[in-house]
Structures are given as C-alpha cells and as structure tokens.
Amino acid sequence: MLPRVFASEGIPRSDVWQSSLCFLRGRRYLVEAASGAGKSSMCAYIYGSRSDYEGSLTFDDADVSKFSIDEWQSLRRRHIAYLPQELSLFPELTAMQNIELKNVLTGHVEPGRIEEWLHLLGIDSRKDYPVGKMSVGQQQRVGIIRALCQPFDFILLDEPVSHLDSRNNLIAARIIAEEADRQGAGIISTSVGNPLLLEDALTLKL
C-alpha cells in the first residue's frame, strides 16, 4: 500500500508503505513517523475514510475497496474503534455527553466503569465541562474513553497522548491495554515523538 501523493515524490523508506504487513488481533503496535510521513493517512485508510492509495488493503482476507457503505458501518461499529488525531469531539457538549453519545448507542461499557476511567485519568471533576473549554490533554483523555465505548477487534489511535505527561500516558496505556486484552483485540497507535507507553509493543517506522 502506498499513498498516491508519494508517487510523484519518491518512495519513502518505511516498514508500512509498499510492504506486506499484517496487523494481528491481540498484538500491540507502535507506528513511529516523522511529520508528513503519512501516519494519519494510514489510519484513514484502515478506517475507510480515505481510499487514495495504491495496492491492496484487506480485513480478514476481504478486499476493503469492494466494501459497501453498510459493510463499512458494520466494521466500524463492531470491529474497529478509532481515535483520530483531531479527536472529532463536539466542543459544545460536556465531556460526559461526548462519551455517552457513543456509549448510549453501543451499550458497551457500564456507567461505573466510565466513572472509574474518568477518575483514573484525572478528569472526573471536569466531566460536566464543555469540551471546548478543556485543554488539549484533557480532550485527548475524553477521546480515549469515548473510543473504548464500543466492541472492537482493533483500536486505532492517531497520536493519542501527544499532549499528556508520562503519568497520564502510563494510565491511558494501561486502560487501553486492559480493555484490548479483555476483548482479545489489537492496538495500533501512532506517534511523532511521544508514544503511547505500551508494554510488549512492536515498533514500526513509517
């Protein structure tokens, strides 16, 4: 797989682009990249929000380029959780409202578990604040919790802790890893310098 924009710029050296790469359930992956190397593009290709690449991308041996809208919707509801770099939170809604917006639809996480995550990540006192008035680091923690509020075979995280200190990074990594392990799911996280502090992760250079 290779983004079409790279065709005119020369092929970058990469463990991902133009490689036969298989992400496995239950494994943890850290994709490290310089700015502009295409990490957000990679995430968008896996999630199906972009298709401007050359090569093939498959999910359980099925070519995703042939998926219908209904098939993509089913894949995103049940198999791939995604936290984009821009977070895609609703700034006028509170932290809890942003989280419940997904969890009410999925019914996946008990309310008490959400409260526990909010407390562990140090934003329980801010749960009723509009997200637009929170810091970027606080917003990232809200986004992480919301991403966990669905069943998944993989959780895809694009620079999820770029604005977190090491303590909150470790807490976020533990919460994500525990939930992924509970579901037997894989973790794919990108970084340009402040990676999610996962144990036993395979590092790939983009």
Question: What can you see in these coordinates?
Answer:
With 206 residues, the protein is α/β, with parallel strands linked by helices. It has helices at residues 39-47, 69-78, 95-106, 111-120, 136-147, 166-183; strands at 2-3, 28-32, 53-54, 58-59, 62-63, 80-83, 154-158, 186-191, 202-205. The radius of gyration is 17 Å and the shape is globular. The two termini are 12 Å apart.
List keywords for this structure.
single chain, 6 helices, 16% strand
Could you say which structural class the secondary elements and strand pairing correspond to?
A: alpha/beta
Low-confidence stretches: none
Shape: globular
Count every helix, treating DSSP H or I runs of 4 or more residues as helices: 6
Beginning-to-end CA distance, first to last residue: 12 Å
Q: How many E-type strands?
A: 9
Mean pLDDT metric: 95
SSE order, one letter for each helix or strand: EEHEEEHEHHHEHEE
What's the story with the biggest beta sheet? 5 strands, parallel
Strand content: 15-25%
From the alpha carbons, calculate the radius of gyration and give it in angstroms: 17 Å
- Main sheet strand line-up: 6-7-8-2-9
What is the percent of helical residues? 25-40%
List the helices and strands and how they pair.
Layout lengths: L1 E2 L24 E5 L6 H9 L5 E2 L3 E2 L2 E2 L5 H10 L1 E4 L11 H12 L4 H10 L15 H12 L6 E5 L7 H18 L2 E6 L10 E4 L1
Parallel strand pairs: 2-8, 2-9, 6-7, 7-8
Antiparallel strand pairs: 1-3, 4-5
Helix pairs in contact: 3-5
Short description:
The chain has 206 residues and is an alpha/beta fold. It is built from 6 helices and 9 strands; from the N terminus they run E-E-H-E-E-E-H-E-H-H-H-E-H-E-E.
